[in-house]
Amino acid sequence: MHKACKQIKQTLPKVDLVIEILDARIPYSSENPMLASLRGNKPSIKIFNKSDLADPHITHQWQTHLEQRNNIKTLAFNCHQPDKIRQISALCKQLAQKKHNAIQPVRALILGIPNVGKSTLINLLAGRCIAKTGNEPAVTKMQQRIDLDNHIVLFDTPGMLWPKLTTAQVGYRLAITGAIKDTAIDHIDIAFFAANYLLSQYPNHLQSRFHLEQLPDTELECLEVIGKQRGCLGAGGRVNLDKAAKILLSEFRAGLLGRISLELPEMIDRELVQQAIIDAEKAEKAEKKAARAKQKGNRAASKQSSQSQQPHA
Asked: Is residue 195 situated within a structural domain?
């Protein structure tokens, strides 16, 4: 992550614009929080990839929300829409129009989180297999320069996350969509978060996919019903929750539950306010702890000084 961040900082001054690939299901959670400060006023295209898996109404809300920022354009896209490739190229040239001429190509930095589909998009833009693809995070290992045939040069960077996530919910959403390797997560914990959200926001999708006669009341009941239905049973007929969790996550990622978005702009606003309160409380506790430690140190130093000044018998 540190190496990729360093490469981005070094490359940004050399490019005309930035193309950031977002997961349409989690536009906020998949957006690099460092990029806003690093790019300055440089034009940016936010591509909502996997838009065929996201709730189209919510995707539109996010596009409107993001385009209110300075110098940002958005485009909803999925790999089954080759006609949108021309739109991406045209948008690059439009945003870099002042710098583009017959001699100098448009230079664009392209980035995105792991497993967001960046390499697939690059291959579609190039019309040939250039970037290695795979259905798992961290396939691209180093920065690449890619010359497209339409007078555009792409600077590709490895998919990267960032050291500190803004909220705990962001981490869960990244895990649900597959941006974090499955070997690094607790499937049951992640599936509980997903089930809780689906029960409240997309109950009909759950009922339809898993043929539920009655909607479960809790996330635990939801996984148990899925496990029983799919034969995830162990000794004594108990449900293997890990297997049931993997089924829920894999079918969500494949779009088998329907078109689902995991976050809305107003939801993120509420979470950030809550997180700010939590951070402030933690900072206050840390400050009080540091003050107590300082007072204790001062008392110990004062006591030691007093003892050293006493006359010896």
From this structure: yes
Whats the size of the chain, residue-wise?
Answer: 313
The per-residue pLDDT for range 93-132, each reduced to its tens digit, is 888 875 556 678 899 999 898 889 898 888 888 887 776 5
- Quote the pTM value: 0.85
DSSP 8-class letter at 53: G
- Report yes or no: 112 and 30 within 8 Å, Cβ to Cβ: yes
Question: Which domain range does residue 121 map to?
Answer: 10-156
∠ CA(140), CA(145), CA(148), 5° rounding?
110
Token look-up 């107003």 returns: 266
Single residue among 229, 253, 277 that ends a domain in this structure? 253
Is residue 203 domain-shared with residue 97, that is, in the same domain?
no
Q: Which residues pair with 210 in a beta bridge?
A: none
Output b/e per residue, 280-304; b: 16+ Cβ within 10 A: eeeeeeeeeeeeeeeeeeeeeeeee
In contact, 265 and 65? CB cutoff 8 Å: yes
Q: Write the CA distances from 162 to 3, 15, 176, 313, integer angstroms.
A: 11, 22, 17, 63
